[in-house]
Amino acid sequence: MLYKEISGLSSSKFKRLTGVKREVFDQMLATLNQAKSASRKHPSRGAPAKLSSADKVLLLLMYYREYRTQFHIGITYGISESRVCEIMKEVETILLKDPRFHLPGKKALVQPGNTFEIVLIDATESPVERPKKSKD
User: Fold this and answer.
1) Which residue has better confidence, 134 or 66?
2) HEC readout, the chain
3) Domain count, the chain
């Protein structure tokens, strides 16, 4: 699914699909575009990218939101699995450099004065096959 296909969704449906508000998505997109334009030596050279910057951010959010495999995302966008991995690393690296999208480390979480309103625990059960007892 490309960004142009979902750009007309209402704010609530957009957040439901991507996991972030449209304003946060726009901030992510602006950060990505700014970093890309600052790092390019020759902006007019090279073949045009198959995916726009908005599609790249959407690809990353799809991976985080739906836990889809890189293979399935690649099929959706018509690119290879390795290119999906490259795009995800590139976008993650750029977004993590911006303090708005950077989470504090472990040491910052254990400092006194930090209060948490919500604690999330993943307690998914998984079946374990146990050996049968035999008399032999």
Assistant:
1) 66
2) CCHHHHCCCCHHHHHHHHCCCHHHHHHHHHHHHHHHHHHCCCCCCCCCCCCCHHHHHHHHHHHHHHCCCHHHHHHHHCCCHHHHHHHHHHHHHHHHHCHHHCCCCHHHHCCCCCCCCCCCCCCCCCCCCCCCCCCC
3) 1
